[in-house]
């Protein structure tokens, strides 16, 4: 265990990422190429270097806290950082041609903003105090606001950016207010100190519970859970597809870290107070997400409502961690983490399909744009089929096992009725996923549908690997689940 008040080596990934992000901004400012090849290459190289550093720290079992217990390094942090970096690398590969076709790379700082967004996620993942959680959240959020507004010639993008900025700022304010109330009730900003204050009985419980309501609301907004979901479909549809993918993938890992550290490490002693809130949000997310998705014709908007429904399952796993007797079960948190990892994996491929099918002047974001895809490109159509079946929870794909694991955790914790509700709404959800499959395989292609290349490009190769992982993890999920259990047990203090 490394213990030092100023151990900069422990925070090497964050320090290095900050320097590299500033370097990419400088490269983008002085690069003369129209398509910013240098910025793209520098970003990928930076991300690969960061990935290697994080993997080295994880392998060397670097753990402990520093900067006056405001920063923590542990297995959970390393795991989520690896997932975040890989998600961003895949996002950049999928998005490259889309950005070039729409002149969004030259002078728009896309790559620099993505790296700063990742830096905010890193700070959130390794935060062990309310202050560092909030700082990381703001760094991530501000970068995302700028990314959504990046396409200046699009009214939809401007509208989405305005909604996201206003609602996101409101959510950040709500979270900050909750943090200030918890500080007032406990006199502490460190999560471990908040837990100690609760256990010793020194905390002002009424004030703390009021602060808890605001904190849970802030976390729910960042997840996109009902009733704080209103930004998700609008931003997913209005933002450029590359940015929608950026929002829907890696940031989810950071929000998961925030939820685990806040609710488990800091406030698990008052689980009886925040569990009912998660139950209500989980049921509403499953209901509204699945039912509203039935009415959608825009594929990105459908994925937005699909995200809301899947967050319902994640919340189901989080609330199942403490049973009726007050016993904490790490396995439930592991199932929630597993579900989130597989969801991000599927989201990457879902938006990747849209980005691959898009052309200059053609967004390919309507469900009708997928008509007859099997005749135009059987391989891509098969990829979409894998994704839709996985999202619907149909075996042998990973979505089935992820849902089953969460449902088992809920039943074990005594929430049988919640598991039944989740199954019923999942059956509803299967309908709109299968509708996409029907459009691809049974409808005639549109006459003006753009031609697709017969040869496989690099990003299509990455997409194929992505889809293969969804299938393999569905058949052999044990390794990833065991890893999730291991990092939860090694990192969280109940």
Short structural summary:
By secondary structure, the chain is mostly helical. The protein is built from 20 helices and 3 strands. Strand 2 (64-66) and strand 3 (71-73) form a beta hairpin.
Secondary-structure topology with pairs:
Blueprint (H helix, E strand, L loop, with lengths): L1 E2 L8 H19 L6 H23 L4 E3 L4 E3 L1 H27 L8 H16 L4 H19 L6 H32 L4 H10 L4 H19 L7 H8 L2 H8 L2 H16 L4 H23 L5 H21 L10 H28 L15 H4 L1 H15 L5 H15 L3 H27 L15 H18 L2 H14 L3
Parallel strand pairs: 1-2
Antiparallel strand pairs: 2-3
What does this structure look like?
This protein has 494 residues and is an all-alpha fold. It has one domain. Helices cover 73% and strands 2% of the residues. It contains 20 helices and three strands. It has a three-stranded mixed sheet with strand order 1-2-3. Strand 2 (64-66) and strand 3 (71-73) form a beta hairpin. The radius of gyration is 22 Å and the shape is globular.
């Amino acid at each position: 265990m490394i213990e030092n008040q100023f151990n900069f080596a422990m925070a090497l990934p964050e320090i290095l990422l900050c320097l590299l992000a500033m370097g990419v901004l400088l490269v983008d400012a002085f690069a003369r190429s129209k398509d910013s090849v240098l910025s793209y290459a520098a970003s990928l190289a930076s991300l690969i270097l960061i990935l290697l550093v994080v993997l080295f720290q994880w392998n060397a079992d670097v753990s402990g806290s520093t900067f006056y217990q405001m920063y923590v390094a542990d297995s959970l942090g390393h795991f989520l950082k690896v997932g975040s970096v890989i998600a961003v690398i895949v996002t950049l590969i999928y998005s490259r041609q889309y950005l070039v076709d729409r002149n969004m790379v030259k002078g728009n700082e896309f790559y620099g903003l993505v790296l700063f967004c990742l830096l905010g996620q890193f700070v959130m993942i390794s935060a062990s105090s309310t202050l560092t959680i909030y700082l990381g959240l703001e760094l991530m959020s501000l970068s995302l606001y700028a990314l959504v507004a990046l396409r200046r010639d699009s009214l939809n993008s401007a509208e989405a950016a305005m909604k996201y900025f206003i609602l996101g700022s409101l959510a950040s304010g709500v979270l900050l207010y909750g943090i200030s109330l918890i500080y007032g009730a406990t006199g502490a900003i460190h999560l471990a100190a908040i837990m100690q204050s609760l256990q010793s009985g020194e905390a002002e419980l009424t004030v703390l519970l009021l602060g808890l309501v605001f904190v849970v609301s802030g976390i729910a907004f960042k997840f996109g859970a009902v009733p704080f979901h209103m930004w998700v479909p609008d931003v997913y549809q209005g933002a450029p597809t590359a940015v929608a993918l950026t929002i829907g993938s890696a940031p989810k890992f950071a929000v998961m870290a925030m939820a685990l550290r806040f609710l488990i490490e800091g406030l698990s002693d008052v689980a009886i107070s925040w569990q009912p809130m998660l139950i209500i949000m989980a049921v509403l997310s499953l209901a509204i997400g699945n039912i509203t998705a039935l009415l959608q014709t825009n594929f990105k908007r459908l994925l937005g409502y699909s995200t809301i429904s899947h967050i319902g399952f994640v919340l189901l796993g989080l609330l199942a961690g403490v049973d009726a007797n007050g016993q904490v079960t790490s396995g439930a948190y592991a199932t929630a983490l597993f579900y989130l990892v597989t969801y991000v994996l599927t989201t990457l491929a879902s938006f990747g399909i849209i980005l691959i099918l898009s052309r200059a002047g053609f967004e390919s974001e309507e469900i009708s744009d997928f008509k007859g895809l099997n005749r135009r490109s059987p391989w891509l159509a098969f990829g979409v089929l894998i994704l839709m079946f996985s999202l619907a929870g149909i075996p042998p794909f990973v979505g089935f096992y992820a849902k089953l694991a969460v449902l088992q955790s809920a039943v074990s914790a005594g929430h049988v009725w919640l598991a039944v509700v989740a199954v019923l709404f999942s059956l509803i959800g299967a309908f709109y996923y299968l509708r996409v499959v029907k459009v691809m395989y049974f409808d005639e292609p549109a006459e003006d549908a753009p031609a697709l290349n017969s040869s496989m490009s690099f990003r299509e190769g990455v997409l194929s690997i992505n889809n293969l992982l969804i299938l393999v993890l569905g058949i052999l999920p044990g390794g990833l689940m065991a890893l999730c259990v291991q990092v939860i047990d090694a990192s969280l203090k109940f």
